Amino acid sequence: MFILIGCVGVMLASVLPTIAFPLWWLVLPLLLTIWHRYTRWFSCLLVGLVVGVLLGDRLISNQLPERLEGEEVVITGYISDLPQDRGRYQRFVFELQPSEQEPTKQQSTVQQHGELRLPSKLLLNWYGAPPLAVGQEWRLVVKLRRPRGSINDGGFDYQRWLLSAGFGATGYVRDNDLNSLLGPPNGYRVSRAREHVRAWLSAIPDVEHSSLLIALAVGDSSVIDPAQWGLLRDTGTSHLMAISGLHVGLLALFGFAAGKLIRRFGCWLPMHSGRWLCQLPNCLSVLFAGSYAMLAGFSLPTQRALVMIIVLNVALILNRRVGVFRPLLVALPVILVIDPLAAYDLGFWLSFGAVLVLLYGFSGRSAINALPGTRDSLPVGDNTPKVTERFSALSGMLSLARAQGLLLVGLMVPLTLLNQAITFLAPIANIVAVPVVSLLVVGPLLLGIALHFLLPDFATSLAVWPIKLADGALDLALHWMTFTQELTAHAPMLDALALKSPSWIAIIVAVIGVFWLLAPRGVPHRWLGLILLMPMFYPPPTHRSPLAVHVMDVGQGLAVIVQVKNHTLLFDTGPKSSERFNAGEAIVLPFLRKQGIGSIDTLIVSHGDNDHAGGAPSLWNALPIGEIIVGESLSAADPSTAPVTSCDSSRYWRWQDVDFYLIEPPRGVAKDTESNDQSCILAISYRGQRIIIPGDISSRVERSVLGQPSFAGPVTLLIAAHHGSITSSSRRFVEQLSPDHVVYSAGYRNRYNHPHPKVVERFTRVGSAQWHTGYTGQLSFIWDDSGRLAVRARREDAKRYWFLSSR
Fold it and tell me: Going edge to edge, which strands form the sheet with 560-564?
């Protein structure tokens, strides 16, 4: 129990806005422990908090010094992990040797920073890169910046992920004659082996699903097609295509069985070797599991599973009793020491939560009672009771179905807290996919890899056959997933359900309900647990403000969500950075899901540039949209589910007490010009206050619209045109509108230098409060019923110690 309380302390440290480290934190736990034994639990909590602070300080101290951001630096190091081909560029992990961490600059100003040190691990992009391989030594000219990511309510914290992964900086390789390969691949044998397996699997002919096999073999999910990811996500089977604890545990069982088989023939060996043969099953169990975890790159689920397997096998070797939750309890602090911010990772809760739910849910079954590690404690070694009950194929399938039901119910709370949809298709899809992938895909796949490595000359062609068998089984599993995905067309109740963020009271009641509902047989009235889950599904109605304008942090782009009490409008959808990332799916959709919004009444796409329209297709494929208004014809596929109309200055509508006006740039001005000047302009009015969102119009269009009523006199909120470019926000435009607040929706340290210093100066002269989403994160402007305005910056509201300060 004390270990668990200490782990809670480590996790609590991650919510601190700062990690100032007072000395009394070290003394107080000791004093409290001596003071009274009943306060030891509190001492453990404080000790965990101190450990979390120390680990957090280690993370943020590894970041790039601020004075080196944006400067060209010459570095020398090695590619230490699998390079990822992203089409236009390659992404790779670059490690500097300790002797190479002193920065070398290209310019004369570099010598001023000679005392600064670069972080040892970097994540770099290289546009137009030559062929890259693990272990290559390169000298590169790079531009670096500190770990940074968009901060939005409900969105993924990329900055936290970078720090957790050990990256002290990100950047890109500059086109420079100094870039040169210094040596052939050397060192990093495990990563080179993973790269070799990836290349070998890619080259095998007539293998249809090589990308999925690569993900299962070496943990490189970057090669999976976005359409395949969509299928896996919709059916709740994504965990099968990442190397999970289930697969590592399966390898541990194979190793244990192989050891027992070898031990059976131990009589052929000299007598003195019998002592070692007794431990052979446990040793091979750890060896098999560790080898697979190493091949997978030691992801978080594999770390957890490997620690549990080691604890269990050590207990068996020492003939000690081991509690049902003891391996899990040992794995938890190990993972938190490796990554003190792991509690923010979806995989952390799903990994530990799934094991906990299964152990708890099956704790009353007779078959499980006979297995090592159940009940309070069990005997181990040769005295372990044997399972006498025979299981038929039908009972095995029923047990698997029960396990999927337990996971569906048991993981509802963590999925909701992490802003993830609950997939009711998951039990149906997994009941077939889990045994097929675990037994018929992973087993043959690893057998083929083992043959390829152990007998390269003899078994090269022989190793292909298990791979093709795995590919065929995987095809069967994908057909089943596709079938289950299509069930939602006939049974809409099976579609994924995104719950609005519940209150803490509802969460506590739901946790009690889950434990009661999944309790072992014999606990009375377990069905009452369903009633305790109801507050999560039917939260009490919340009071919505009459008007809220949320400017999302989408980097160099624009996405503005306007909420009126019973309506939602989205102005622009943010950029599409690659086939795997667009702001509509990764930023806008999670925010709407967390707000409990299941549809968009009006979507306005100001014009067709990627930074404004890139996320549109993913949104109209994911949500019902009442109407789409465009200022310029879109090149994306027609959504067909919603009427598409052009921006028209005669358009006006009213939602509750809020008025909306569309403003189309005069045709004589916008015609035959670049798409920016064809942007649709939106003006909003509430209780005499006005908000204007002008898209990317230039000063030429600004002059032409200043005479319209919406632009007469000061405004409350203005979204700066074209992200604060010097081509917009002309002096006359700024002086006439004189906004109380102006927002620059631009990326942190973006290459366009938005907002331009002259634009900033113009708004400063008229006294505008200026906001930059790259520094503040998501900005929310919220009006109450009396018309008073409150401004919230996400980086300040949800401040964590790894955030950079807002500016």
Answer: 644-646, 625-630, 600-605, 567-571, 560-564, 547-551, 779-783, 789-793
